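TA notes. Do not distribute before section.
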Amino acid sequence: MYAVEPSFWLRLILVLTVFIGLTTLFNAIIRRWLKVEKPKAFSHNHVNDRHKKIDWTLRIFFIVLMIIGAFVNAGRIGQEPYLFLQPWVLLFVLVFTSEIIRAVMERKYAENPNAYLSTIYQSAFILVLLIVLFSTDFFGIL
């Protein structure tokens, strides 16, 4: 078993705190600028029933895909696993696909015409932040 040094956890907490702080600050600024209400914390915030059905269908599809991917990649022991079936890749694709669907539904059905812009800006900011973090190896922190 590999031991993880205690300073790793402190650095990880630092990176997560900065990431969460930046995204929270950006979201607050965008919501204020576009005059969009703050969504309820830890809720799905579906625009309507159609959005809810599409979102849950997408989630179930990705859960099934993750299970299939686990079996396929488990059968490839000794070989490189398929990257597109890795759980972290599928979860990343699920989150951004879900946000694209949310933006489309907000564009068509939301009461506030700027709600979809807020979703797009937030998603783009998080995507850019994640790309910067991973491409710089977390700025050498981890």
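Switch to the second chain here.
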Amino acid sequence: MNLTSKYPRSPRQRLAGLVHVPRMIDKARACKENTLGEYIYPCPLDKQILEFLNVDSDAFMDKASTLPEATIEEWVEYLVQSKSRRDFEKINESILNASPDTDDAKRKFKDILNSIDRNRFDITSWAELIDLEEGRM
């Protein structure tokens, strides 16, 4: 996966019932191939998912770079088999609703948003901003 020439998948996409995992697979594969470009792996959203899975970023990267997606999905399902439906809802909401929480992050968020469209006041989460920036909104 070469993220210097294309975007990773949307943070809204799901795998094994979890948002952001397909995007994280794309970024982990790109990181392993040294084609991550300006993306960050693991970013703060990745870290939330990794914590939920109880897996470190290197282990996830190894799986993402060596296994087909169907097998990764089975592995993720195995890792979360003891999680409740509410656990899934909470982590998905946390990822999709994550917004800047420090003054620096708020400035960065506003700068990115203004560089794309100064008239978008409806964009409040990182997932929304990512999709807007990558042309999915």
